[in-house]
């Protein structure tokens, strides 16, 4: 009895002190295998293997001496023979010795004292490996004599017959079911609790539900979650299509192949399109071509659009997308930080370069197209359509001049043009298009709910117009259409607010009496026509007005100090919190924002100037070939596997996917 007690106590102590440094995600102990334990692969999908052995310098696991350079590694198929890693298709072998200074997150005291926990690391990488036989594999790293780290890998056994000619993946960045519900309330009239019209999303035949957790954190960012959606591999916050290793170099981390790369490798005459309302170097579009542990390597991202990343360790042999439409001109212009003039390079490579909506519409659809419409993120639907004066005096024309960008396309115009280009150029082998409504997320971050929901309604209108377009092109039955999100924000609506009453009172507690819940919520006033109501053609649904007297009582679960008056910010996008002069990373309420409202103290650390992502699962809407695969509750990575299955990309040995025509896909 006594001995048992002692050993339990020893374990508790060890566990507690082991917290002095945060382990690299995917490392269960001092040995690390990337890809890590419990990873699934598409048969034939290229990936790198990286092995690390750690020797912590401080903490309870501290070791004397260098990390083991003599580790060994095997991969064995369950029910098959053990094979040494060197028998795989390995094109490069790198052995490096590194020192990784790791600032711990879990020990805030050590962080305040600027005393990092250090780890010495030995590492080895095998580049561009693939597993072709479906089944379960066991990868084993043996180090320090007898210590072992085991990673269980699974190669999915998927049908190889191609079922879809085209795939469109719409991503409402940060979009949740709660936001869709709120947008519907603002834009669709109901009578006695029954809606008279439906959203385009409401009409999809199949609805699923995906879990967005990342590899080593239950809250994901857009880089990491886009990686899961496009590759079937979960990674770490800020990583694009790599597992984050110990080295500082953001380009040497172990990579894995992206849906775009696999699609073009199997079907060299297929097409790829990328559309976003974000700056193009942002994570969700970037994850279709870039491989890096740091999403902030913006020049690398743009160069990967330009050449498909062929110059990056010869990882891939595709030459980039046919059509790229978005904003973020600052990353295309030649500056001292960005030495290359990407407009010139794209143009020399055969792309038409459009700087405004008119030029984009006029660009021939049988040629490659790059559209960059302004600096920064695309102006929001609300400013482009309702409060247009906010487009003035921005000095954001994409050619680097100080003109204003006012002839702007929206998500719908960009998406429909991208479809024209892809269909014109790739009617034979089909195409893949990703279209992102990026600012649902960006405006949720800054607590600008009207602008966020305006973006969501624009996405819905884009989906509606896309379905009509595919119908008119005769492509609807051959196109898998998905609408999903990469993660959520903790947004919801809990009632309504009498803004006239709020604005008329001065005391904060009196102002709060303007909030009505349950019965006092009443009905949506956004759909009520009045003298100032906006008119939209049949089938297009946006609010009839954005400034009714009774607005939505909405909010998120975590936020910085801010003021709230629950009224549309007609003067431009909102900035809820301000950094105090001379105090870095210390954010207080912005007294210029929502002046007629009241102060709400923040629930986030004071270095947060905006809201954060949340835990919620997000919806998946599916229609078209393979739609049935997307019903139910599943993991974000399953979206990749289902798309890959639908496009016939599973490459079990000797059964490489055949051409579209051979698979009987209608052209
Ligand atoms: C391990 O780390 C220590 C402390 O930083 C350093 O002095 C030593 O050279 C490292 N050893 C190896 C083999 O890198
Ligand atoms: C690693 O193996 C080599 C060759 O067998 C041996 O000379 C060396 O001492 C070993 N190093 C360690 C740290 O075990
Ligand atoms: C770990 O060791 C290094 C090197 O000796 C030292 O600089 C650092 O402060 C130590 N960290 C902690 C948390 O003690
Ligand atoms: C990539 O391949 C080309 C041609 O095969 C070769 O010349 C070049 O050295 C390779 N680059 C890298 C980084 O391996
Ligand atoms: C749109 O782009 C074309 C081609 O660069 C240019 O000639 C035209 O002036 C632009 N229009 C506006 C409104 O900026
Ligand atoms: C834009 O700037 C000009 C001159 O700087 C000014 O006269 C004009 O009022 C501004 N327009 C808006 C909409 O702010
Ligand atoms: C509440 O917010 C105000 C304004 O930003 C700030 O001065 C105050 O310190 C906050 N209170 C707390 C407890 O954070
Ligand atoms: Zn975000």
Strands, helices and their partners?
Elements: H1 2-17, E1 31-34, E2 39-41, E3 47-56, E4 72-77, E5 82-84, E6 93-102, H2 108-112, E7 117-129, E8 135-143, E9 147-155, E10 166-172, H3 177-187, E11 190-191, E12 194-195, E13 206-211, H4 222-231, H5 259-266, E14 271-279, H6 283-286, H7 298-307, E15 323-327, H8 342-348, E16 351-354, H9 357-362, E17 368-372, H10 381-385, H11 411-425, E18 431-437, H12 439-445, H13 449-473, E19 479-484, E20 488-489, E21 491-498, H14 499-504, H15 508-511, E22 515-517, E23 550-556, E24 562-564, E25 577-579, E26 587-589, E27 598-600, E28 613-614, E29 618-623, E30 632-635, H16 636-646
Parallel strand pairs: 2-9, 10-18, 10-19, 13-30, 14-15, 14-18, 15-17, 16-17
Antiparallel strand pairs: 1-3, 3-7, 4-5, 4-8, 6-7, 8-9, 11-12, 13-29, 19-29, 20-28, 21-22, 21-23, 24-27, 25-26
Helix pairs in contact: 3-13, 4-16, 11-13, 12-13
Signal peptide: 1-18
Binding site for Zn(2+): 173, 441, 445, 486-487, 613
Keywords: Magnesium, Metal-binding, Signal, Zinc
Task: Give a quick precis of the structure.
Mg(2+) binds at residues 173, 282, 284, 436. With 667 residues, the protein is an alpha/beta fold.
């Amino acid at each position: 009895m006594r001995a048992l007690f002692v050993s339990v106590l020893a374990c508790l102590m060890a566990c507690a002190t082991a917290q002095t440094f945060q382990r690299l995600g995917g490392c269960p102990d001092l040995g690390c295998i990337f890809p890590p334990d419990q990873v699934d692969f598409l048969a034939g999908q290229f990936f790198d293997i990286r092995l690390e052995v750690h020797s912590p310098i401080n903490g309870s696991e501290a070791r004397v001496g260098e990390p083991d350079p003599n580790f060994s590694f095997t991969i064995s198929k369950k029910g098959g023979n053990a094979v040494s890693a060197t028998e795989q298709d390995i094109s490069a072998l790198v052995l490096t010795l590194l020192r990784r200074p790791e600032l711990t997150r879990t020990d805030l005291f050590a962080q305040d004292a600027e005393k990092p926990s250090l780890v010495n690391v030995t590492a080895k990488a095998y580049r561009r490996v693939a597993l072709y036989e479906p089944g379960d594999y066991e990868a084993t790293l043996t180090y320090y004599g007898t210590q072992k780290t085991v990673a269980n890998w699974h190669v999915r056994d998927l049908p190889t017959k191609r079922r879809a000619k085209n795939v469109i993946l719409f991503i409402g960045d940060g979009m949740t079911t709660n936001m869709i519900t709120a947008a519907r309330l603002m834009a669709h009239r109901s009578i006695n609790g029954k809606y008279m019209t439906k959203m385009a999303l409401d009409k999809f035949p199949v609805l699923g539900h995906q879990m967005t957790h990342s590899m080593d954190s239950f809250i994901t960012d857009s880089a990491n979650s886009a990686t899961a959606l496009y590759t079937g591999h979960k990674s770490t916050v800020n990583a694009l299509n790599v597992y984050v290793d110990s080295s500082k170099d953001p380009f040497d981390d172990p990579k894995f192949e992206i849906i775009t790369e696999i699609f073009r490798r199997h079907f060299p005459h297929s097409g790829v399109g990328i559309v976003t309302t974000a700056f193009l170097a942002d994570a969700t579009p970037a994850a279709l071509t870039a491989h890096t542990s740091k999403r902030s390597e913006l020049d690398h991202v743009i160069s990967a659009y330009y050449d498909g990343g062929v110059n990056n360790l010869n990882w891939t042999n595709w030459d980039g997308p046919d059509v790229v439409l978005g904003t973020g001109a600052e990353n295309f212009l030649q500056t001292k930080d960005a030495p290359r003039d990407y407009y010139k390079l794209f143009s020399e490579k055969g792309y038409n370069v459009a700087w405004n909506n008119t030029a984009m519409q006029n660009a021939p659809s049988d040629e490659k197209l790059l559209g960059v419409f302004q600096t920064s993120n695309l102006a929001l639907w609300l400013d482009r359509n309702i409060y247009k004066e906010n487009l003035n005096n921005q000095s954001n024309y994409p050619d680097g001049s100080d003109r204003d960008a006012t002839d702007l396309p929206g998500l719908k115009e960009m998406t429909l043009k991208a479809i024209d280009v892809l269909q014109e150029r790739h009617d034979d082998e089909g195409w893949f298009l990703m279209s992102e409504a990026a600012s649902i997320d960006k405006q949720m971050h800054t607590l600008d709910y009207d602008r966020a929901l305006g973006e969501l309604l624009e996405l819905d209108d884009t989906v509606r117009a896309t379905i009509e377009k595919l119908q008119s092109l005769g492509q609807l039955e051959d196109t898998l259409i998905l609408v999903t999100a990469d993660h959520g924000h903790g947004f919801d609506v809990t009632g309504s607010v009498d803004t006239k009453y709020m604005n008329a009172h001065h005391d904060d507690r009196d102002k709060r009496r303007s909030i009505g819940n349950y019965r006092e919520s009443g009905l949506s006033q956004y759909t009520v026509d009045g003298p100032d109501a906006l008119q939209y053609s049949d089938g297009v649904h946006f609010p009839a007005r954005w400034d009714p007297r009774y607005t939505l009582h909405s909010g998120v679960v975590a936020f910085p100090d801010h003021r709230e008056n629950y009224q549309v910010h007609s003067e431009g996008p909102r900035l809820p919190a301000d950094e105090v002069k001379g105090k870095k990373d210390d954010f207080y309420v912005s007294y210029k924002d929502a002046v007629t409202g009241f102060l709400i103290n923040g629930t986030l650390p004071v270095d947060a100037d905006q809201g954060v992502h949340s835990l919620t699962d997000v919806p998946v809407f599916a229609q078209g070939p393979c739609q049935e695969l997307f019903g139910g509750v599943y993991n974000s990575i399953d979206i990749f596997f289902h798309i890959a299955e639908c496009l016939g990309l599973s490459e079990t040995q000797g059964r490489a996917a055949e051409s579209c025509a051979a698979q009987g896909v209608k052209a």
